[in-house]
Amino acid sequence: DAGVIQSPRHEVTEMGQEVTLRCKPISGHDYLFWYRQTMMRGLELLIYFNNNVPIDDSGMPEDRFSAKMPNASFSTLKIQPSEPRDSAVYFCASSFGLAVYNEQFFGPGTRLTVL
Amino acid sequence: GNSVTQMEGPVTLSEEAFLTINCTYTATGYPSLFWYVQYPGEGLQLLLKATKADDKGSNKGFEATYRKETTSFHLEKGSVQVSDSAVYFCALRAQGAQKLVFGQGTRLTINP
Prior knowledge:
Shape of chain A: globular
Oligomer: heterodimer
Largest sheet of chain A: 7 strands, mixed
Strand content of chain A: over 45%
Largest interface: A-B, 23 and 20 residues
Order of helices and strands of chain A: EEEEEEEEEEE
Radius of gyration of chain B: 13 Å
Shape of chain B: globular
Structural class of chain B: mainly beta
Helix content of chain B: under 10%
Order of helices and strands of chain B: EEEEEEEEEEEE
Structural class of chain A: mainly beta
Largest sheet of chain B: 6 strands, mixed
Strand content of chain B: over 45%
Number of strands of chain B: 12
Distance between the termini of chain A: 36 Å
Helix content of chain A: under 10%
């Protein structure tokens, strides 16, 4: 398996523009997670899905952020409008099942820079 | 709430030195505990895990023991290599939950 795939790997945009980050989880995994990593706040969970349904979005910072999972093999995280403080590395991760120690597999991340 | 506290970095050691990275946690019940490693430019990879008290997780020469009495899960390695240079994250998953709660990460640099 190719692992979790994220695109783009790097994104540079200007303040106010819409940004869409994409994720393809590992085939067969039923959980998908979006994380944000910054120097100041470390690694934060933004939202996670189970069987394409959002389960917990309490980490989504504000209404400018939205996430969707239209099918089991694709998810997007959208920021509209983007702001410089959104600059971070965004990770997608996936896992299978409810086993107490099931591993989350992380993608390589998307480094977002908002100018 | 649930939280994880790691020793602050960065940590710099010479090759073949002994490594300890401290991790303590706050959680109700019996969480599962994890160490993840992030190499430069990559996503996080699971290094080792433990699911109950006194369990020892081990992988690639790294070890960590789940100590409920001290709420700790310290990472150790007897002889580090340059290739171990990375950022290490301690994490917990509360009993019955799917969310991982991460520590702030510890950057480790090994000099030859």
